[in-house]
Amino acid sequence: QVQLVESGGGLVQAGGSLRLSCAASGRAVSDYAMGWFRQAPGKEREFVAFISWTGSATSYADSVKGRFTISRDNAKNTVYLQMNALKPEDTAVYYCAARAGLSRDFAMYPYWGQGTQVTVSS
Questions:
Q1: How far apart are CA 107 and CA 121, in angstroms?
Q2: For 90-106, how does the pLDDT look when each residue is reduced to its tens digit (9 = 90+)?
Q3: Deepest in the core among 24, 26, 60, 75, taking most CB within 10 A?
Q4: Apex CA 10: angle with CA 43 and CA 47, to 5°?
Q5: Could you give the maximum distance between any two Cα atoms of the chain, in Å?
Q6: Which residue pairs from 104-113 have beta carbons closer than 8 angstroms and sit at least 24 positions apart in sequence?
């Protein structure tokens, strides 16, 4: 099993940037593909981005493509989400998740962090 802890959330103005981190423990993050998801109040959890265990494959939701970048440092057991040009509609709790293969479906991920709040003011 792997335990995940997100950090880096906060309050930022529209157009600003934040970098989220997801630190893994218990098992090497290099054993997993990693995903970022988000959930806004009253909405379903949605896919943001994923990255393969080698980092060679990535995918993004259309709503964040060109603004967000997912990366990983397996030596540090950490996955990152760099978020630029933030918009008020990016406001949500952001979660990282791990699974054995790549998927955009949050229901396919067995391991989750507790989430970190991102609030973008207009």
A1: 30
A2: 999 999 999 998 999 99
A3: 24
A4: 35
A5: 40
A6: 104/35, 104/47, 104/50, 104/59, 104/61, 105/47, 106/35, 106/37, 106/45, 106/46, 106/47, 109/35, 109/37, 111/1, 111/2, 111/3, 111/4, 111/32, 112/4, 113/4, 113/5, 113/6, 113/22
Q: Are 72 and 29 in contact (CB under 8 A)?
A: yes
What pLDDT sits at residue 13?
98
User: 28-87 pLDDT, tens per residue?
Assistant: 777 899 999 999 999 999 999 999 989 999 999 999 999 999 999 999 999 999 999 999
